[in-house]
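User: I'm curious what two different proteins look like when written out as structure tokens. Can you demonstrate?

Assistant: Sure. I'll show them one after the other, since each token string lines up with its own sequence. Here's the first protein:
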Amino acid sequence: MNIAIAGAGEVATHVAELLMKRHAVSLIVPEGLQSTRLDIIDVHIIRGSPTSSTILDAANVSSCGVFVAATDSDEANLVACVLAARLGAGRTLCLLNNPTDQHTVDVNLAETLGIHALIRPAEQLAEEMIRIVSVPGALDAQHFEGGRIRLLRHLVEAGAPITEGALADLTLPNNAVLVLGKRDRKAFIPNGASQFQAGDTVTAMGTPRGVHEVLYRFLRSSDHGYDAQDVLIVGGGSVGLSVAQGLESAGWTVKIIEADRDRCECIAPKIRGLVIHGDGTDLDLLEQEHAEDTSVLLALTSGDQDNLLVSLIGKTLGIPRIITRADRLSNERLFERVGIDVVRSARGAAIRRVTHDIVENRFEVKAELDHGDVHIINIKLPETFPPTTLAAMATQLFAVVGALIRDDKVIIPRGDTVLQANDHLLIVTSIDCEDEARLHFASPHIVEAQ
């Protein structure tokens, strides 16, 4: 498929890099821009403004299956999408970076303009934050197939049953698969001989019931106790307000600390919880508000330095869960390396949404894990694929089948599950092994040779 992307920031270049292996990607960047990243990605570079029909013609937008407008200017993105739609682009995706509480462009207006999807990074980030916070102790929480398949990444607690022996000796639920483990920043695919330790992280995929059972029966200590549903949010911007409203709707008690008095007065009537005017990096204020007693701290200001400082203070106070916003995508890894539990960026959320929108109906990359090092891909087995047990497909590749969809039915596979033609496999694989994993699981001649 031909894909054209307008923009030279983290979102545009990262999406281009994700898609360039299997698509013909054109990237429209400003005239005169110099960037080392542009030199290392294998895409067609067009220099100029995406609001110019001439430049869009040079990018062959008329033959594009998807056009993505991801510049730093919302106005330019809207105009570029309208032009691309008129030129004949199959789908147009428009990034709107300006975080406003009242949307200036709604879905109905976008459709009349020929824009198929509006992507608001701040909204995407808020949705991810709500989803993760809502699952007790989750480091990541995602769902697929309309929620029929769940994914959970969680820390192994001291004294958790999963630490009591090798996986082969434990009675794990049949409707869930442990697809990924991590110890000391090294990822691995669990097998029967794997034995987890406290402090490891486990990623499970399965039905909602199966993932719930893995969490409560195997990953938590027997004396874990009750999970309080109270949260302290530092930063009352559009993301902070959206998260607060979403969590209150789910029954959480919310408190917000916001440095701008006018903003405090604006958001106070919009939530039931307390809005405090003050500096979230002020240790005295946090102690005065008994921050140490809260179950979750969310650092959601618009500044990475402030968010990092708030998070480190929260760790010092002993707050059990800390979830942090990072504006720069590269800071997601950095913040986690200094001990922050969960880090998400608006740009990362936008990248995940854009790639999902592009490939949703094409069964390719469904999600990214571990900051892009691990992908969840969806491949369809060909018509000529012979019935073969999953055990017979064993491979040394960093790849594991977490679920399969057959005639709209979700199946969590075991070793004796028989794969059939036209099955869709959800495969967790490292980015380095992705191409080989696609070939291995989708090529009948490889199966027959085993």
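Here's a second, unrelated protein for contrast:
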Amino acid sequence: MQEQLEKNIGRTQKKILQNLLQANTPLRVEALSQILNISRNATYQHMMSLERDGLIERASIAQTKGRPSQTYQLSQAGRHHFPKHYALFANLLVGLVKTKMGSQELDTCLKELGENLATEFTDRIEGLKGEALFNEIASIMGELGYESELSVMPDQETFELKAHNCVFHELAQQHEEVCSLDIALISKLAGKQVEQCECVVRGGTFCRFRVIKK
């Protein structure tokens, strides 16, 4: 989706986004028209396209000597259009914790993070059991970016969750403890112990988690 959006953004539209970013304040079409040295009409058409794509949004109405004029600003999606190095920061942070506190303490911290994340979905799984519960867990993981699916084993009591996308792929390649977050997340949601049977970072086809029957 993001890659396709990048392809659809022309040079002039990129300049509009850059100017809105650098101005750090809403701008009128007229102001951008002067900056870009193109007609107001052409600027307006570019603005409408960017607004349709969700990269800019309407802000306040500017009071001018003439009639009031609409101003525009970057949307949250527009700000995300510019490079963000979350993976780099996460790798530096996890590496620092591991160096200062050790692998075991890092593992403990990541498990706690996974459990804390699970509590955000408590309302959605309350009262659910069996296959209905695990279908909801698969749905939650999908929303988090794991692209997961549920498999019910022949005994009808054992469940496996397959995640086709590791959302921490680059981080997990550097720090294998990161998988503890996923395991803790699923365990907390399921209310049962979970084991990881396969890991995409370590040569698996996908990340596969199995609920251990009590």
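A detail about the second structure: The chain is about 55% helix and 15% strand.
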